[in-house]
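Title: Prediction job returns without error message
Component: structure pipeline
Severity: low
Priority: P3
Assignee: unassigned

Description:
Job completed but the reporter wants confirmation the result is attached to the right record. Sequence as submitted:
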Amino acid sequence: MKPLDMKDIAIIGAFPVYNCEKTVLNVGCGRARIDFHLAIMGYQVYATDIETYETWQETTNLSFHESSILDLESFPIQKASVVIASEVLEHLKDYKTALANLLKLSNARLIMTIPSRHSFHHPSHCNFWDDQAIADFKDIKEFIELCKPYRTTISKIITKPQDAGKQFAYLIVVDKRQKLRINKR
């Protein structure tokens, strides 16, 4: 089992702490580094990705499934207390549909990470976000609008100590249990 990096620890730190089932759906789990740790912590984990990895090893409370966030019927469960999508949306041209589907799958909390600007640039990245919409960067604040009416927080996190000051990711947490009240006059 590989050690967790700072991004993984930030994701676990964003879990709901009260009145919540211990079911996790990790969309785009990759090699499942965080999933093994969550299973050891007592969560029932459903880890998914668009392809199978040879490192996937199921345990009593950890199962793996090939699924695409653009096809909800491909998922092993249709609701989870916590849904994680770490480093997923930057790969999808239709990230808004993917985000809507992630919200449908979550009962309590949706936790996402996306790289800031061109941090961790990969040839398959087709979306880039920043604090301000300039050039080819989209405004990170769009997630607040896309996730209404739920409470959404966005923060910058570093992933490894050696990345401090250079590369960041955004941690986006949507709490579906906290709906915002919109006053209409």
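Comment from assignee: result matches the submitted record. The first helix runs from residue 6 to 13.
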